[in-house]
Amino acid sequence: MATTIPAREELVRKASDSVPLLQKHAAWAEENRRLHDETIEALADIGVFKLRRPKRYGGYEVDSRTLVEVGVELGRGCSSTGWVASVYSIPAWMTSQFPVEVQDEVFATPDARVCGTLSPSGMAAPVDGGIVVNGKWGFISGAHHAHWQELIAILVPPAGEPYPVMALAPMSDLLVVDDWQTSGLRGTGSVSTVAKDLFIPQERVLPLGVVLEGRADPAVNGDSPVYRGPLLPMAATASVGNVVGMAKAARDAFLNRLPDRKITYTGYASQREAPITHLQVGEAAVKIDEAEFHARRVADLVDAKCEAGAEWTLEERARARADVGAVVELSRKAVEIFASASGGSSIYSDIPIQRINRDVQAVSMHALLHPNTNRELYGRVLCGLDPNTLYI
Prior knowledge:
By secondary structure, the chain is an alpha+beta fold.
């Protein structure tokens, strides 16, 4: 399929142009605990669902720097929208590790959306022609609008040690449990899904370790550099742009209200005139700049390694996780500064800063994004120890 690949600047511009619409539906998404259908349509118009779709299926196969910069703009518009977009990009990349006949099936749907998780919360048993899976998976962001789900389960073979596998299942084969009642990222619709005695054919099953290590069959996607890297660094670059975007959204929300605000019970008729405001804005802005540095550094590392087809060192993998943690921590602190400076009136539900603050707090508790976890992992590797995790 011949595909015209938009330049990075065009994709970023289209994402930026969508910000007013995403902002318009952000409150609806939070109230209804899923993205608005018009938001999904806007993401399709931008080309978000093609970013990590292989070119032979009409996709764009964009580099990681593009993912980051598009993610920033989506996060500026709506935290939940940016999060779901990043989640769809990761399983799309994972789907591209499967045999061609599987990709033919999944990507036969225009703008196919694949959701998923890396949590091995299911069990699988081998049967003739495939596996039978039972389990429940939580935090399945974007499940309401997805066509397929990537599942992780522990396969128990007749002989040998159990090991994790990655499998693909149509959403129609899964039970969706509407249990997403949370304080943050409510609009992501990150419900749970259940499989009961679900048969999955063997061609839709891969050992998880193959994908984590970046050892998938190179013949599957030819010479495309986008599919050469290990999973975790690739996933990192899909996530961090949105987090930076949340911090920029908080900055925009604060500055938009600033001209009309005073500091109650003080002599400052305008908050903009108070030195404390200058310090707060300056400190938060610097943290956003620092977060953006780490987001771009990890993206540039991924792109350089993939383009060269070079092996990843353990230290590089650990540093990628550390960069992600730094992005989250710095962005969260920037949002907290703006939220604290926004005054008592900002706790009303129609003021965006309170939602952005809750959303970034939710992101910071994600197991693979948690700043302390990632910083400890980096330090452990630098001290010459094994990483103590497969997720690196």
